[in-house]
Amino acid sequence: MSATSTGGVNIFFIGVEFCCLLDPSICYFTVCHEVLVAVSMNQNKWEIRLFNIRSSDHKGNYPSAIREMEISVKPTPGCRDICKGNSLPPVLLCVSLWKKEELAVDFHEFTIEPSLFTFLFGIDLAMVNSPVVICGFPDGQVVFFPLKTVPSPKSDFTDNQTKSSTRLPLLYNLEQPVVFLGATKAQISDGENNPWTNSSNKLFCDCILLLGQGGLMVTITAGNKAEGGTYEFREYHLKAPVKSAFCSGPNLYYSTCSDIQCVVIPQPGADLQNRILSYSSYNIPMIRAMSPISCCSEGDKEFLALSDKGKLMLFILKQSEDTAQRARLSCSQAGQRIKELLSQIASVSERASPLKSLIEQRNHSLLNLNKVVAISQAVLTSRGANMPVRCKVKPLWTRRLQQDCLVASCILENKTDFILESGWNLCIHLSTEGSGTSYSFSVMNLQPEENMEFIFPLVTEESEHLEFPIKITFALVYSLQELDKSSFQDPQSSLFSHTQSSICLPLQEHIIDILQCLRLKPHTGQPFPTTFHCMSPLDPVEAFLRSSGGAECKPGQPSAISKAICNAESNYAVTLVASVRVASVILHRALKKEDSDTSLCSLLFHWLLSAELPLSQNPVEVHGMTPNGREFRLRVGEVSAYDLSPANPIPATEVQIISPHLDALACLHLAVIRRLQILAEKCNQDGCISPEINLDSIQKQVIARESLLKEVKSLLDNLCVRKDLSFESSAKKRLLCLYKELRDPGLLLL
């Protein structure tokens, strides 16, 4: 009554006669027949309280509820997060029984057809003419309660009543948050005009709507009275998610995240095969809430909408104008319009086809790049035996072009979860002292947990003969240009430069020594075969030192040094011997097994020649040839070292390398020393106790050896600066003496 209108804006004045209800827990309310229905959340329960808005006892104080009800929250799996966050409020709808002699006084109150009202809420509520409030909650429950209590038919809505602990009847459970409750007249009788366009008509509703956020719409209508009278629940599906909705006649308008859409509510009794309703769109996005304002004539729809950005907007949908515009088109004009639309669709399709292909290619390239990054991360963050991509190398003898040649077999293992596809390359670099070469192999479709073998020669480009040890370095390289080939037709649009167009992932390093490449044969016990009649009893160095000089080196002719060494290398018959000793306690700690009866000598042989020596053999001497065709013998025996320990002799195992070829002897000697150094370092890391040795004796031998080597170096420097190969007999004798001293077995022990 205290409202004025100025410029079309209604102004309401709040005076002292009004009562303020200060309760921040209230999340939704409505007014039904001068009763305020407020819903709030309290300790995982929904509380429904009723207040009399016409009571004269308020006097500005906090009003007391005339009735209170509770309902427990029972979230389904689809509503648990929403109920926990309390992000959606409940919705309320007040309906009453339709009577022909009564008129509706409130636009927001709905009267229900008598049979449907009686079937849903019972004959008792129909007899007392009690309005019913339907409540929909975010957990999917839809319940109802009457404003009047059944035991007091004559009681008014304002009578004080006690708190209700009775369980509220469950009308339906949508199993998704309820966003709208409504009632409408869905069925129009034959010959009846649209009753919603005439506001003077007193209408009743024959359909109650329940709408969920997930797009589930349930209609409740009265069944066939001839079959005994009942009600029907029918489920339909709309486009989700639904934010807000309202009914206008037989149409339901609802807002999604991107549009406002309209569906026609199916009439009661209609048998629809498809439960997914077709809709019309109005291209109005980002509407959070909307509500009808009034019933417009000529089928226009007027409603108020609130956007996501907080703007309040008024919309009027002119359906009659749209219908008239479509009616003015003739058949020929409509046909021409359809042809133009089809032509435009074809043109857009032609332009979209290459774009779609390009997008698919780029998506494929990005997917491959994602796999490359994942493989790179797995390789770079692991080392040793845990590497997901690793190589195993083994030298092999093969025969090509009627010649025996030595190659290496590399087994690439893929332990990742990805396929090594086109673009991956295995790069192998071989390096020896002073030379090196590289190989590159394409990795094609290597599946997870599978292997791929690559074979490559061990001879480098700079050297025709094998030089040991050979260091092999492996790297996995991915060419980023493979991504550009499929994604970018224009080379200038490449994402990657030509100077930095690959990803290199270093893998393991392997050392191949001469012991892995020997060719063993049965030991005959005979001395090394001789193929020359004239044999020198000296080794090459001694033969050179005893040779007479005096001839000056001429251009284009081989020097006397070259001839002497080459001839001596081919014709001497003196067997050269080099030995290496290792403490038996180290071998016992590293190689000996508790349940094994094999001797330390056999264990050491198998450890040195694991690739060539069968496990069934337990030899103490082997005979074979090096990859360059040099004959040799390896002999292992147990000895005692007397000159290294101050107390007792040290039990040791001696490895003797015997060969008439100095190059083979030196190469085998270095390989055995490297192997035993690795064994000794491993024992030191494991805490093996080394025997005590006489460091003073070793130091004296080292000093003596260094002194002899310095004198040899000085004599050789003087020899190299001369123009001819002749030098004084005294210098020659001194070099020969020094060489004999350097060959002393006691010094070779070092």
Automatic annotation (TrEMBL):
Top-rank taxon: Eukaryota
One cellular-component annotation, GO: Fanconi anaemia nuclear complex
BP GO terms, sorted: interstrand cross-link repair
Name of the protein this chain belongs to: FA core complex associated protein 100
